[in-house]
Write a sequence for this structure.
C-alpha cells in the first residue's frame, strides 16, 4: 500500500508557528485507503476547510487517483470523496482525478467513483456553490465539446451566489462544462446514461453571464450507448433554459440574451437524431418551447424583440434525407407561433414549416398531420392593435363577440399528402386561415395579403380543402384593404383564385370586398377579381363532372367587380351570385355600383354558342353578364342543357332589369340594355330557339316567351315607354318588333 499526503497547510500546521495574519484557522483532513492515491492540499487564506477521502485500487503510478485542492481568501470549503461509495476492494477505482481551486467564501463538493473520470472546479467570489457527483467510466467535468466548440473548464464560477450542480451518477463517457460569471446564476446538469467513446460521447456545455440566469440540462436517455449534445449560453438577467434529452443522438442549442426569457427543449425517449436550436436575442419576456419525438426532427426558433412566444411540437418519423423541419423566426414584439408536425414526410419533401413574423401582434398556428406538407408563412406588421373592432370566425365584423382586430394572424392545418401552403401578409391587421384535411392530397393554398407598396388593412382569408388536388390562391391588397375571402373546397380537382384590391380611402362599410366560394363535387374552377369597395361575390359549385366544355372538364365561374365610383351608400354594393350544379360556365363583370347579378346553372352546357359579345379572353361562356352602369339587375337561370345567354347593361345605364329563364335546350339569348328603367323578361323552352332584345330608350318593357323549336325573336326599343310582348310556339317562326328605332338583326343563331 502506498499513501501520499502532501499538505502545504493542514490542521497540524496550525500548531507549529504559522503566521496568524496569513493563515488563520484553516482545516484540512485527508483520509486515504487502498493503493496509489495522491492528495495535495494548499490553503493560503483564512478559515478554509478541506476534506479529502480516497479509496483506490490502482496498480501503479500510471493508474493512481489524484486530488489537488487550492484555497485562498477567506471561508472556502471543499469536500472531495473518491472511491468511497463502494470502497476497495469491493469495486474498481483508478485513474480518477479531481482539481478544486477556490478564492473566497465558496463551497465545493465532489463525489467521484469509477474509473478514468476527472473533475475540475474553479470558483472565484463568495457564496458560490458547486456540487459534482459522478460514477462510472470515462466521465469528465471538463473538456466538453459540442459541434467543434470545446469548453476546457469543468465548473468555473466567478461572482457571488452562483450555483452549479452536476450529476453523472451513474454514467459513462459523459462530459460537462459549466462556466458562470455574474451573480445568482444557477446551473444543473444531469447526465445519467451509459454511452461509449467517440461518436457515442455525451456532452453538455453551459455558459452564463449576467444575473439570476437558470439553466437545466437533463441527459437521461432510455437507450444505452446513446449520444446527446447540449450547449446553453445565456446573458442578461433572469433568463431560464431547460434542455431535456431522453432519446438518442439528440442535439440541443439554446442561446438567450435580454431578460426574463424562457426556453424549453424536450427530446423524448422516442426521439432519435433530433435537432433543436433556440436563439432569443435582445428584448424581454420571450418564450420558446420545443418538443421532439420520433426520428430526424429539426426545429429552429429565433426571436428578437419582446413578448414573443414560439411552441414547436414534432412527433413524426423522418429520415436522414427526409427530415421534419420547422423554423420559426420572429422579429419585433408580441408575436406568437405554434407549430405541430405529425407523420412522415413523403414526395421528396422534408415537411418544411417556415414562419417569419416581423412586427407586433402576429399570430401563426401550423398543424401538419400528414406527409410531405410544406408551409411558408411570412407576416409583417407595423404597430400594435389599431382598432377596437371585433370580428367573427368568418372574418366579418361581429357585435356578438369574436377576436379583437389585431395584427397578422394565420392558422394552417394540413393532413394528407404533398400539401403546400404559402401565406404572405404585409401591413396591418390581416388574418388568414387555411385547412387541408386528410383527403386533400396534392393540394395547394397560396394567400398573399398586401404588399410593401400597398400593405392593406383588415384583410381576411379563409381556405378549407378536404378533397384531393385542390388549388386555392388568394391575393388581397389596397392601401386600405378590409377584404374578406372565404374558400371551401370539398370536391376533388377544384381550383379557386381570388384577387381583391381596395382603393386608397377608408371604407364606410365593412368588409369593403367580400368573396365566398364553395366548391363540392368534382372538377370546379372559380375566379374572382374585386377592385375598389362595396363588392360582394358568392360562387357555389357542386355536382359531378363527366362532360367537357371548350376542352375543359367541369364547372367554371369567373366574376370581376370594380367599384371606384365614390358613391358608397348602404345600397351601393355590387352583388354577384353564381350557382352551378352541372358542367357549365359563367362570366360576370360588374363595373359601377349597386348592380346585382344572379346566375343559376343546373344542366350541362359543353359547347356554348360562340358570339363576340358573349365571350371574354377568347373563351365563350354559357352565361355571360356584363353590368357597367349602376343599380342594374340581372337574373339568368339555365335549367336546360346546352343553352347560351348574354346580358349586357352598358355604361351610364341605371335601374334596368333583365330576367332570362332557359328551360329547354340548345337555346340562345342576347339582351342589351342602356339608358334608364328598362325591363326585359325572356322565358325560353323547347329547342334551338333564339331571342335578341336591344333596349336603348328609357322605361321600356319587353317580354319574350318561346317554346317549340327553331323560333327567332328580335326586339328593338329605341324610344321611351314602349311595351313589347312576343309568344312563340311551333317551329321556325320569326318575330321582329321595332319601337322607335330601325331593326338590327344581329348575329344569326347557329349551333
Amino acid at each position: 500500500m502506498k499513501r501520499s499526503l502532501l499538505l502545504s497547510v493542514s490542521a497540524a500546521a496550525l500548531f507549529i508557528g504559522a503566521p496568524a495574519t496569513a493563515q488563520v484557522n484553516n482545516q484540512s483532513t485527508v483520509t486515504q485507503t487502498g493503493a496509489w492515491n495522491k492528495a495535495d492540499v494548499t490553503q493560503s487564506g483564512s478559515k478554509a476547510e478541506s476534506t479529502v477521502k480516497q479509496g483506490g485500487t490502482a496498480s501503479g503510478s500510471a493508474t493512481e487517483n489524484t486530488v489537488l485542492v487550492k484555497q485562498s481568501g477567506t471561508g472556502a470549503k471543499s469536500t472531495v470523496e473518491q472511491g468511497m461509495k463502494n470502497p476497495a476492494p469491493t469495486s474498481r477505482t483508478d485513474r480518477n482525478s479531481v482539481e478544486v481551486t477556490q478564492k473566497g467564501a465558496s463551497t465545493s463538493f465532489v463525489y467521484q467513483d469509477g474509473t478514468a473520470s476527472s473533475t475540475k472546479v474553479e470558483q472565484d467570489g463568495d457564496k458560490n456553490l458547486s456540487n459534482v457527483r459522478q460514477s462510472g467510466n470515462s466521465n469528465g467535468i471538463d473538456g466538453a465539446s459540442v459541434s467543434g466548440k470545446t469548453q476546457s473548464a469543468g465548473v468555473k464560477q466567478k461572482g457571488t451566489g452562483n450555483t452549479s450542480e452536476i450529476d453523472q451518477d451513474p454514467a459513462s463517457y459523459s462530459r460537462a462544462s459549466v462556466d458562470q460569471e455574474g451573480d445568482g446564476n444557477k446551473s444543473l446538469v444531469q447526465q445519467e446514461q451509459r454511452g461509449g467513446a467517440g461518436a457515442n460521447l455525451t456532452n453538455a456545455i453551459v455558459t452564463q453571464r449576467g444575473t439570476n440566469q437558470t439553466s437545466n440540462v437533463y441527459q437521461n436517455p432510455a437507450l444505452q450507448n446513446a449520444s446527446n449534445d447540449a450547449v446553453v449560453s445565456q446573458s442578461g438577467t433572469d433568463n431560464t433554459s431547460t434542455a431535456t434529452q431522453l432519446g438518442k443522438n439528440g442535439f440541443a442549442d439554446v442561446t438567450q440574451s435580454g431578460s426574463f426569457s424562457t426556453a424549453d427543449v424536450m427530446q423524448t425517449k422516442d426521439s432519435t437524431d433530433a435537432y433543436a436550436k433556440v436563439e432569443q436575442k435582445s428584448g424581454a419576456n420571450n418564450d420558446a418551447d420545443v418538443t421532439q419525438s420520433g426520428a430526424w426532427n429539426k426545429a429552429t426558433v429565433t426571436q428578437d424583440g419582446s413578448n414573443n412566444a414560439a411552441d414547436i411540437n414534432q412527433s413524426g418519423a423522418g429520415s436522414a434525407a427526409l427530415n421534419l423541419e420547422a423554423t420559426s423566426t420572429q422579429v419585433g414584439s408580441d408575436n406568437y407561433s405554434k407549430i405541430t408536425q405529425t407523420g412522415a414526410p413523403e414526395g421528396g419533401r422534408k415537411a418544411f414549416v417556415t414562419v417569419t413574423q416581423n412586427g407586433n401582434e402576429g399570430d401563426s398556428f401550423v398543424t401538419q398531420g400528414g406527409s410531405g406538407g410544406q408551409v411558408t408563412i411570412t407576416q409583417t406588421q407595423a404597430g400594435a392593435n389599431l382598432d377596437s373592432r371585433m370580428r367573427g370566425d368568418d372574418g366579418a365584423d361581429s357585435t356578438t363577440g369574436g377576436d379583437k382586430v389585431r395584427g397578422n394572424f394565420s392558422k394552417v392545418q394540413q393532413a394528407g399528402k404533398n400539401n403546400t401552403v404559402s401565406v404572405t401578409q404585409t401591413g396591418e391587421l390581416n388574418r388568414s386561415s387555411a385547412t387541408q384535411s386528410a383527403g386533400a392530397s396534392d393540394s395547394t393554398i397560396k394567400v398573399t395579403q398586401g404588399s410593401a407598396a400597398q400593405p392593406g388593412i383588415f384583410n381576411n382569408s379563409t381556405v378549407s380543402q378536404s378533397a384531393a388536388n385542390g388549388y386555392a390562391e388568394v391575393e388581397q391588397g389596397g392601401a386600405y384593404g378590409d377584404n374578406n375571402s372565404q374558400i371551401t373546397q370539398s370536391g376533388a380537382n377544384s381550383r379557386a383564385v381570388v384577387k381583391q384590391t381596395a382603393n386608397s380611402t377608408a371604407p364606410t362599410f365593412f368588409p369593403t370586398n367580400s368573396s365566398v366560394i364553395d366548391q363540392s363535387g368534382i372538377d370546379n374552377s372559380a375566379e374572382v377579381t374585386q377592385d375598389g369597395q362595396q363588392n360582394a361575390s358568392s360562387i357555389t359549385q357542386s355536382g359531378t363532372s363527366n362532360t367537357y366544355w371548350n376542352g375543359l372538364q367541369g364547372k367554371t365561374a369567373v366574376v370581376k367587380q370594380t367599384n371606384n365610383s365614390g358613391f358608397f351608400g348602404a345600397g351601393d354594393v355590387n352583388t354577384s351570385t353564381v350557382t352551378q350544379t352541372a358542367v357549365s360556365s359563367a362570366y360576370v363583370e360588374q363595373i359601377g355600383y349597386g348592380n346585382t347579378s344572379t346566375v343559376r346553372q343546373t344542366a350541362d352546357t359543353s359547347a356554348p354558342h360562340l358570339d363576340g359579345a358573349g365571350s371574354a379572353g377568347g373563351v365563350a361562356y354559357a352565361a355571360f353578364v356584363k353590368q357597367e352602369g349602376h343599380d342594374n339587375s340581372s337574373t339568368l337561370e339555365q335549367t336546360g342543357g346546352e343553352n347560351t345567354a348574354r346580358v349586357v347593361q352598358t355604361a351610364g345605364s341605371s335601374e334596368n332589369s333583365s330576367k332570362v329563364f332557359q328551360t329547354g335546350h340548345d337555346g340562345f339569348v342576347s339582351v342589351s340594355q342602356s339608358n334608364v328603367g328598362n325591363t326585359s323578361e325572356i322565358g325560353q323552352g323547347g329547342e334551338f330557339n333564339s331571342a335578341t332584345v336591344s333596349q336603348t330608350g328609357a322605361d321600356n318593357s319587353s317580354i319574350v316567351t318561346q317554346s317549340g323549336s327553331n323560333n327567332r325573336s328580335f326586339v328593338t326599343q329605341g324610344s321611351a315607354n314602349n311595351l313589347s310582348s312576343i309568344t312563340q310556339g311551333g317551329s321556325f317562326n320569326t318575330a321582329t318588333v321595332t319601337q322607335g328605332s330601325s331593326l338590327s338583326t344581329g348575329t344569326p343563331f347557329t349551333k
Notes: The radius of gyration is 39 Å. The longest strand covers residues 522-532. Residues 76 and 105 are 4 Å apart (CA to CA). Residues 534-751 form one domain.
